[in-house]
Design brief:
The structure holds two protein chains of two kinds. Chain A is an alpha+beta fold. Chain A has helices at about 5-20, 25-35, 40, 45-65, 90, 100-110, 120-135, 155-165, 235-250, 265-270, 285-295, 305-320, and strands at about 25, 70, 85, 145, 165-175, 180-195, 195-205, 210-215, 220-230, 255-260, 275, 280, 300-305. In chain A, the strands form three sheets. Chain A has a five-stranded antiparallel β-sheet. In chain A, strands 11-12-10-13 form a four-stranded antiparallel β-sheet. By secondary structure, chain B is α+β, with helices and mostly antiparallel strands. Chain B is elongated and about 90 Å long. The two termini of chain B are about 55 Å apart. The chains are: A alpha+beta, B alpha+beta.
């Protein structure tokens, strides 16, 4: 086999070839002439195998953000036998009027350093590198600040991909207090980091309404279906999601009594508004807030709402039960 | 820096070429070391990639070999003798490509995260950068939103200290301890899981310490220039030698939540549960973390930690056994 030519060489040659053509190249021209395919064809590789390789390469390049354009037959756009392929320079190049000042590069370098997840961190670094390749050297780096984003939920990556492709996903979702997870069908629109937890905002297909799901409550794998939706739905979704969460927080608050001078009074006091008897603290999710309140033990007492009060009592009781005296 | 760069996949190499070529054309002559550092690869990996650039070129017409001017070429002498890269003939890839959807998304989310950093918000550059990144992306990135965090007086004063290199003093109230007054040479503000921490040299303890800013009050910017910088910045949640050990058992699916609170080591998984050893100055302090898990976490050792946890939760529970309208004090 003429397999001596590595994939990256074939792919890069393909980019160069498709960028150099105005009218586009047919599949046959590519297989006959582009280095990496040509040698395989000469060595007797079957045409259908080479065509499959070209299809995969095309997908690979699109994943890298390289805009491979398919120009079909004018009379029948679905007939791809005579289709021509090219990479339009104007869609490939970073637009010439976008430039970055040294101060902007310094900010972007800090922004690029926040991801602890390896793949997102690599993407951010690659983005910064493109700006540096424009010949921009940054100001002194911004030191003394180390903001970190963690995205350790397994659901994060598949949801991001489904949003990019505007495809419906299904996943099993377990609400606290329910016995079994329920399968949801969702058009995912945005990922939202709110109070250090990742949420996916989207449209629940069965309920036909906007919903926000906590990634940590997704059980098992997120599956991307072949059903796509109108990408226009994604416009402004992040803002809508954030506004929705803030509205929930504004409409949900707990009346709490706290012991002054304790951890509870410090931590909750910052988020609180004074009330006649105690303080009022807004919250988004009963169960997550109950986890926090339970951690304060006797430093806080929930007056209302009842659901929160019951949730805290249940937690404290479970803690006592789990840590009974052991005879030894 | 000492970490061994990971081997690249074919797609990674293609992505690297697409940025490397315009980078080299823009910079003229670049040393191997500099290019390797810029692209996060090993020096020999970079050499090999630059050498292989010379087999990239325009397609030959059927039956003809490609002409030299249709191929990339480099200054071989310069590379072999001086380890310096220079492209001497280029055939394409002159311009920097657009950001991929992923690159744009990662940077856009990062920008929202750093927008709260005073050095960044003062610059007023964030909105313009968001617009540029969005416009420069090849495909619409998935929207990844990071909710903004508020900068209160404590955060503002401490940030000022970091930027100006001045010590800050404040009242610090650690859990289950009396408040103390601290003066700290601020080294770094760590923002993680929605919480702000100050790491710096504590004049009282004469050591690097990490302070949770929610527990800080009455912050004052002093006029004392800092004398300690980041030379020995500890891992924020690292255990120190004098700390006690607590052994806990949690369901495996919840184990990752421990990492956010303490550094766990020697965790053993068995039948869906994990036994982890956590380090705390006072083992009884585990009661707060244990109660947050609402019974899903069992404190195994030492006995005093288990007892403290049980009594902590029982005392909380007792508040609800009293008649309503009890002491509001």
């Amino acid at each position: 086999m003429a397999a001596g030519i590595p994939a990256e060489e074939r792919l890069t040659n393909l980019v160069v070839a498709l960028m150099a053509t105005e009218i586009g190249l047919t599949k046959q021209q590519i297989l006959d002439n582009v280095s990496g395919y040509r040698q395989r064809a000469d060595a007797g590789a079957r045409t259908d195998a080479l065509e499959k390789m070209f299809e995969r390469d095309k997908d690979e390049l699109r994943k890298l953000g390289v805009p491979v354009e398919t120009i079909g037959e004018a009379s029948d756009p679905n007939d791809l036998r005579e289709a021509r392929y090219r990479i339009p320079q104007a869609e490939y190049d970073l637009p010439e009027d976008i430039d970055f000042s040294p101060a902007e590069l310094a900010v972007l370098r800090l922004a690029g350093s926040v991801w602890s997840a390896e793949s997102a961190s690599g993407d951010a670094q690659a983005g910064v590198r493109k700006i540096r390749a424009l010949g921009i050297d940054g100001d002194e780096p911004i030191i003394g600040f180390a903001p970190r984003i963690t995205a350790r939920d397994a659901a994060f990556a598949p949801l991001q991909e489904a949003i990019e492709k505007s495809r419906v996903v299904t996943f099993d979702y377990l609400k606290p207090g329910e016995d079994a997870a329920r399968t949801r069908h969702v058009r995912p629109l945005a990922l939202v980091d709110y109070e250090a937890r990742w949420h996916v905002f989207g449209i629940d297909v069965d309920a036909e309404g906007d919903r926000t799901f906590l990634l940590s409550r997704i059980v098992g794998a997120v599956k991307m279906t072949s059903t796509s939706f109108d990408p226009e739905l994604r416009l402004g979704a992040g803002e809508r999601a954030l506004a929705g969460l803030e509205e929930v927080a504004a409409n949900n608050s707990a009346l709490l009594e706290i012991t002054p001078g304790t951890e509870a009074s410090l931590r909750l006091g910052r988020r609180a508004a004074p009330a006649v008897q105690g303080i009022r603290v807004p919250f988004v999710d009963v169960h997550i807030f109950a986890d926090e309140l339970a951690s304060y033990g006797p430093e806080v007492r929930v007056v209302e709402p009842v659901a929160l009060r019951d949730a805290v009592i249940a937690r404290l009781r479970a803690v006592v039960d789990a840590n009974r005296e052991v005879s030894r | 820096m000492s970490a061994q760069p990971k081997p690249l996949l074919a797609a990674d190499r293609v992505r690297l070429y697409l940025t490397l070529v315009p980078y080299l054309l823009e910079h003229g002559q670049v040393s191997l070391d500099e290019a390797a550092a810029e692209f996060g690869v090993g020096r020999e990996e970079m050499r090999s990639m630059v050498e292989k650039l010379t087999v990239i070129g325009l397609p030959g017409e059927s039956g003809y070999w490609q002409q030299p001017q249709e191929m990339f070429d480099i200054n071989w002498d310069l590379l072999d003798d001086e380890d310096v890269i220079e492209i001497t003939n280029d055939v394409a890839l002159r311009r920097v490509p657009r950001f991929t959807a992923r690159e744009a998304a990662a940077l856009l989310a990062g920008l929202q995260m750093v927008a709260a950093v005073p050095a960044v918000s003062d610059s007023g550059l964030v909105q313009g950068l968001i617009a540029k990144l969005s416009r420069g992306a090849a495909d619409a990135p998935a929207e990844v939103v990071v909710a903004p965090t508020a900068v209160d007086e404590v955060r503002a004063v401490v940030a000022r200290g970091v930027q100006d290199g001045l010590a800050v003093s404040f009242t610090y109230q650690a859990p289950d301890a009396a408040p103390t007054t601290r003066t700290v040479d601020p080294v770094q503000i760590l923002i993680t899981n929605g919480q702000w921490y100050l790491q710096g040299w504590c004049h009282l303890r004469r050591a690097m310490r990490t302070f949770h800013l929610d527990r800080v009050s009455a912050p004052q910017l002093t006029d004392i220039p800092i004398t300690h910088r980041g030379e020995n910045l500890p891992d924020a949640f690292a255990a120190s030698a004098d700390e006690g050990e607590v052994t806990v058992r949690v369901p495996e699916r919840l184990a990752s939540l421990l990492g956010a609170f303490f550094s766990a080591d020697g965790a053993e998984a068995h039948d869906g549960t994990v036994v982890a050893r956590l380090h705390l100055a006072d083992p009884r302090g585990i009661k707060r973390l244990a109660a947050r898990f609402g019974g899903a976490l069992e404190v195994l050792e030492p006995g005093i930690a288990r007892t403290a946890t049980r009594e902590w939760a029982a005392a909380g529970l007792a508040l609800y056994h009293q008649p309503d309208g009890g002491d509001a004090g």
